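Researcher: Hi, I'm a grad student and pretty new to this. My advisor asked me to get structures for two proteins we've been looking at. I'm not sure of the right format, so I'll just paste the first sequence and hope you can take it from there.
Model: That works fine. Here's the first sequence with its structure tokens right after it:
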Amino acid sequence: GNAKPSELSDWIPTSGFDIYVIGCQESSWNTEKRNLPAADLFSVVQSHFSRASEVPVTIATVTLWDIKMIVLVRSQLAPLVKDLEMVHESCGLGKVLGNKGAVATSFSIKETSFCFITSHLAARASRVNQRNSNVRDIVRGMRLGNKRLELTQQFHYLFWLGDLNYRINISRDKAIQYIKDGNLQILREYDQLRHQMKMGKVFCGFYEGELVFNPTYRYERGSREFSNKKNQTPSYCDRVLYRTMPQALLTQHSYTSVNSITTSDHSPISATFSARYIKEIGGPLSSQDDLGVHGYRPAAPVGPVESLKTKFRSGSSQFYTPTTSAVSVITPSFVILLSELEILKIHPLKHRVDGSADPYLRFIPSFETDKVHETNHKKRNLDPKWTNSESPLITYSGTLNQLRAQHLSVLCLDLGLRGEEDLLGTCAIPLSIGVSENPVPFRTLLTRQTRRVGAFFGKIQVVEFSKHSSGSVFETRTRPESKSEVVPPKRSSSFSEVSRTNDEELSKLKKLEEEQNRMNGEESDDEESEDDEDESNKLKGKCVITIKNENETTSY
């Protein structure tokens, strides 16, 4: 904001965590007449940590106008950080001005990868579609890690924090009365972001903790009394969202706002997490590896699970993957069999004047990102199916425990009218669900720039290479499938977690998908140009992240 907070202790702890990520928007205050405001913000944060018994190491600072992020890690972890990368994307006027947009940082600690994005999206209650468009522009424009993949589909842990600017769709007077009555549940029901996520319009596959605190905007500076300027409804503008890859496990412990910092018309927010650390390839599986993520049974990580605490507060290197040379001499080898692949109601791209698509699938294994495996394309088909003979065979050299920690990145591409390829949607399939005597049905949602664009179905089976070569695998594939499989309930149709399923569940999901496609067709999602706004400056802290290894005896 336009004034420096006197104390950050209520917002940013100085101990107890391993990674801290602080993101701010409209942070323009400066002691030298707005000269180098980022330097002031970063120096204040570093000064705050200088009082700690163990001072963390700053590994990244990134700035886009008044959107800023600083990342610090515990000093013992700093030597283990690799693949550090930073990027920014403008979404302001003409997609050039940086008053709206995002900055991002990605890195790995050993084999566990992280990506953090802090953004400032379009303001005003009526600009829901423009905010959704901002998110798509950010994901489309930011290229981190493996440049062939969207950043939402490659990092073990991805966090999106900032002033997302989604509003509450009720009158100001009603909202204030509900807040006074402590009836926050009704406010959440009118929250634009949750509605858009439920419809699959934006942030498909992301989760958010429960909103149990008061709206974070708009307050009078110097107090926490709601402002009546422009008659704006108090809203949850400031958020922390997250998503994980299938083999990762994340637990959220807290999600709250900080009312003691009053220099802005926003209240800063914070969230704390524990993240499962994916240990070096080759470690034995522990009993904890049978745990699922968000109630599902996704891939289990390799190695003894070490608990990591992550603390968030809102306010060109290559992505690491195991190299084939590292496991090429390890036996036994496995074949990954994909069958009965099908996409339901893929959304065509706007530039296809025929309203159709020529889709095909590209599979990029996490263990060899330099190789791709593809199906043939289906001409002018929005509900394509591929036979077993059209599905690629993918081989893996390594142990079964190593394989359980891997996944397939799936890209659905459109072979354009002139032979070019365009992305239709993407998802990730954990290989652990295919470790079975029989082919295992799976389901997941396809997304493009966080928007739901279709549903992907199929079967997967991981078999030993020797059985596949001898032909015995085909006998296994014809056995009756077990009817004892229990499918956990889906949290929300907007989340694209992979899970096992059966024929009855597939039928229900297809009907749900068709119904939601019809509902999506009723709402326009036009991209608007944004007018430059005359808003007062404010410091809005969005998130600080830390990761702590609770097992201090573990060697890295």
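Researcher: Oh nice, that was easy. Here's the second one.
Model: And its structure:
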Amino acid sequence: SLSRSLFSVCVRTQRRALSSTTPAVSARDPKRLSALSSWCAPSMLPRASAALTASTAARTHRLFSPKARSLGAQATSIATSAQRAKREYHHAVTSNPARLARLRGLFSEYDADSDGLIRTDDIRRVLEGAVPGSRWTEQQLAQMISIADLDDNGAVDFDEFCIWFEDIGDDAIEMRVLAEFWSGQTDIRDPEVVFHSVWKKVSAQLGEEHMKFPSEIIWVGGAPGAGKGTNTAFMTRERGISSPPIVMSSLLNSPAAIKIKDMGGLVSDLEVLEALLLELTKPQYADGALVDGFPRSATQVECVRLLHNQLVSMHKRFSSTPQASFYSQPLFRIVVLFVDETESIRRQLTRGKLVKAHNEQVMSTGEGTLQELRETDLSSSAARTRYQTFREQTMDSLQSLKNYFPYHIIDAMGSIESVEDIIRQELQYQSSLELGERTYAAIAHISTAEEVSVHARQELVQRLDSYERDHNDTFMKVINLIATKFIPHISRYALGGKVIVECEDCDVCRDDALAREMIFDILTDRNFNVLLEEGTRGNPRFHIKFEGVHLKYKKH
């Protein structure tokens, strides 16, 4: 499989160079062989060259460099093994009658004229019928044929068709999976088709029981220049997420994504979602994950919702099993860092100037590492276009998730400190969101500290008013006692923030429980923290705490 993948990539990346150096060669087989000469390791050559014919090797021997001619000699010696290799794989397929029958059925759906070959028109007809809403360009269909067409005759026979399914499990042989495998740049827009085909592939690869996702995922989007790189690290710390952010632009530099881009295609939603799901299942994200740069399109936005539904389903399915702790109720948050167009353009251009100056210094001194200099960071019109793309595509798509998940728009126009304050407030703990449904239902009737404090304050006001109205004499004596006995002690120890006052031989409060309650309530109203206990000889003792005075010393 690796040889064939390299084989296809090599051919397409080197054709232009080959055509300029050997214009007399029109056949594609010699070009493939030449590509292999510089890309494939010796251990890969026998299998990768098995599909080449002896005549191809002979032509290559005459037309190409000594290195290529040496490879041609190797191909000549092994060309006779090509048919044997096909027979061996055909035997492997026929040894599984159920798989063979499924493959035969699929092949016959493509091969409308029953000539034993699949061409671009055949692919278009079947895939557009199997994947509603999909549209396939001539370039995409030609690339499908080219990838599977090992003998380069412009069509795919049944043996080549079977080989293409080599890495697909028996239970995944179907049209939707075929669409994913046959086009690195498929333009499938149906989110359910995208999500379920990727989910099926990943679950077949890992086993669904091993697909353990983070209990919390923060999906971060932002306007260009909004400071995602700066603020995502703060978000992970604030939420107690130990793993670094998953940056989609870095994740899509995988060999698979590079292969697609080298073939002239764009990494599609299929590949993006597959890379993301595989990354999220890694153990390092068990306590949570932050995803930077996904979702960005309407299809990806819907895939986020479908992923949440899938994780909820897994949570319910495993809730009564020993693995329940690995499948908690998922918590998704959507965070959008926002700046206006003017600020976005200013920040993009400023970044471009800084990166350009840095790179010039690296080039002149030879020290340091070059940084990526984006084209949009050098042109105000390009920066404006990038911002408008964010507003019209990403922002509009993200807003549709408001109805499903906690949605936070962060005003990122201010300083780093002010933005962090907003983030801290937005992402603070909320038990109704983060606890399991049954756990929250069990404790929800217990008042929170904030609720208790509000009610206590209301009750305090009512008691103080009742003291003044119904027990005025005692109330005035208590006020005088506090002013003459308590406040002097508190003032004396103001720097410490704590004082103990014991009422000895005090007629006002010694035997009067109501007077003691008045002292407690008045001091509480004055913003002291008070604890009342019984002291020596039954005297009431008040432990009073308050905000002390902090002295600052200037160093000389």
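Researcher: Is there anything I should tell my advisor about the second?
Model: You could mention this: The two ends are 74 Å apart (CA to CA).
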